[in-house]
Amino acid sequence: MRIGPQELIIVLIIVLVIFGPKNLPKLGKMFGKTMKNFKEGMDDVEDDGETKKTEAKSEDEAEKKDEE
Fold it and tell me: What's the confidence (pLDDT) of residue 55?
């Protein structure tokens, strides 16, 4: 399901009525910071997953060497 231009305009008008024109810049800044933190968190999770995989591989290799 896509959001068309009409639906987007209606949502923006509702947001403008609820929060008022003075609070919209604050709301936009807060939303931007939230998205930035979310993306950084997702990158951290991906990085942690990769390091765990490499750590697991190195542990497996060390176990194989110990067995020999």
Answer: 53
